[in-house]
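Quick one, T. Sequence first:
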Amino acid sequence: MRFAVIDLGTNTFHLIIAEQTANDLNIIYKTNVPVKLGEGRINENIIIPQAFERGINTLKDFNKTIEQHQVDKVRATATSAVRSAENGNDFVLAAKEQANIQIEIISGDEEAETIYEGVKLSGAIKERSLIMDIGGGSVEFILCDPQKILWKKSYNIGAARLMQQFFKSDPITDEEKQAILGHIQNQLTDLFEICEKHQPTTLIGSAGAFETFAELIVRKQNQSVDIATAKTYRFDYDDYIDTTLKLINASHDERAQMPGMIPLRVDMIVIAALITNYVLGRLKINNRTLSTYDLKMGVLAGLSKK
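C-alpha cells:
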C-alpha cells in the first residue's frame, strides 16, 4: 500500500510518499517547493495571482510524481494561507480541475492535533512539553505529555504575516522588534495562563524554522548529525541562544551567508527567533528539542491506520 501526503503550507508545499509493509511505514520519496502562497497580501486574506499560479503548477508536478509512484491513497491538507484567504476556495477548485488534487482545508484545531500526532511519532515527547509549530500564516501551540494533548490552539501570528506587517528594515530595528513582541504578548495571553497552570519543562520545536536553527548550530559546531535524517535533536542552551541572537541582529546578507541557511528562511527566521525566545523567556523553559516530524507525518500516520 502506498500513501501520498501533500502539506500546503503558507511558505512551502511538501510531498511525502510512503510505502506500508507488514511491520513499518517507509518513506520512499519526499520533496518541498518554496511556493510562498502567502506572498504580498496575506494580511489582507488574498492569494495574489503569481502565488496562485505557482501553487497550482507545483500541484500539477506533485500529481505527476504521485502517478509515477502508483500511489493508492492521497491526502492533501491546506492550512492558514488557504484557510483565511477570500479566494481560498477558488484555489481548491483550481487544484481539483487543473492538477487533479483534492484539497482538504483543515481547521487550526485539527492542524494542532495532527502536529501532535506527528511529533509523538518522533519520540520527542518525554515529559510535559509545549510543542510549537511556526508556519508562515499561523503558529500552533500544543501543551501535552507522552500520552495526550492537554490544550491546543492555533494563532494567526505566522512568520509571513508578522514580516509583512512589521519587518521593514535591514537589519530589523529595535522599534520593529518591540512592535512584534507587543503584538505577540497581546495574542498569547491564554497560552501563558495555561502554561502557568501546567508548567511544561521542555519546548519542542516542530520542524520548519527549528530545523534551520539546528542546521546552523550543527554546521558551526562541526557536529556529526544529519538533520535531514534525524527524528529529533536536542539543543544546547548556549548554542541556541547564541545562534538566535546572531540571527536577530544580522543583516539579510549576513544571514544568507550563514552555512545551513536556506533562501526561503533568510528573513522569516528573524521572526521565528523573536517569537520563540519571547515564549521561552516568559515561560522560563530551558530545555528545547527539535522534532523533524510534524503535520505531514501526523497526516501520514492517520492515513496508514485507516
